[in-house]
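anyone seen this seq b4? input:
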Amino acid sequence: MAYDYDLFVIGAGSGGVRASRISATYGIKVGICEDFRVGGTCVIRGCVPKKLMVYGSKFAHAFEDAAGYGWSGLEPKHSWATLRDNVGKEVDRLNGIYLRLLKDSGVTVYMGRGRFMDRHTLEIGNETITAAKFLIATGGRPEMPDIPGREFAISSNEAFHIDDPLPKRITVVGGGYIAVEFAGIFNGLGSKVDVVIRRDRVLRGFDEECRDFVHKSLQDSGINVRSDTEVVRIEATNGKAPYRLHTKKGESFETDLVMYATGRVANTQGIGLEKVGVQLDKKGAIAVDEWSKTTAPNMWAVGDVTDRLNLTPVAIMEGHAFADTEFGGKPRKGDHRNVPSAVFCQPELATVGLTEEEARRTLGEVRIFATHFAPMKSTISHNKQRIFMKLVVEAATDKVVGVHMVGDDAAELIQGLAVAVKAGATKAQFDSTVGIHPTAGEEFVTMRNARPEPAPTKAAAE
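predicted toks r here
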């Protein structure tokens, strides 16, 4: 049977765009659909606009530091509308670039939500297309709470479009990377920020010492972290701000804006997966094998909709590997080991490899090298910010299996060190590398003494 397309991709985010473009270079006919804007979460409502807002918020700290370096007469005034609108213009520009890239690659773009009619037929608005193979790359969406007053809260999607002026009091509910990043943004732009978390500390899943360091840094920056707290009801004043948040403890407090960042879920609803035999896992994400293949014989899935590693470069890697495997005659799987990542909180956290806890659980004996210090920049400006660095080394092989940092430019540093970890570098090779002085990064090659191991407890000895 002749189909309209050899491959049709549902979702024009990072993974979908990469897969469609690479597939088209192999001489096949490719189509793609998107129901909002091309570029996906990262470009339209995620990493790119958020990082630009992080940059904007950091100027407040730079102005504070400037006095120690002899600058005076600085009376900065920030315009939220200017930052918001300029970020929006950059998103518009990137959307145009992605559309151009697809067109230049020979990929046909449909604007509309795709819904499966059967395993080879997709409905997009009033149009129907057929394809031999499908790739699902619909990403994820913010998960909102099922509590009274939820309609008064926004998600990270709406955070880029807040009306001017920026509210004076903002409450961010959640302790993951999106929550702490926006907390830093709003704090830097002058709002009084509360962060509400159900657990004792932010950033569950990261190295425990890094979590401690970030948690304290948030507090030192003036952010009020309400630990072990759960919001159960939001009340509005005549349907608008100020809002009163009621907690499970019976406490309450007022705020002018509530933003939820309590997790994301896979975008699998409303696209007809139940009609074509694509199975979901217990979290509602598409179940795939190591080749990104679903349970339907002609369908694959990549990116956040599979809930493996929800990172833009991972989606791109998975999409590229799919195209090479299915159409390029170069079978390969996406490699999810030693993937570096960063949280653009202030100061930022970046990591690659195993946490200390993971290494002890999976490798047995490890050696830990860690240091924390005030960066040179702070010696004159006297701000409270410090840097934390950590190396996790497998004792039996001397391999560096984990690198962690909290501090300015952590992501830039860890990106380079990720190459070393991926290549299997040893601690001896780190030690033999000459540092660049004076930099914070040189500390990674000058940490010589492993932390003393704690004495075994009586129960462990027995």
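The chain has three domains: 5-141+265-327, 150-262, 347-450. The mean pLDDT is 96. kinda curious what u guys think
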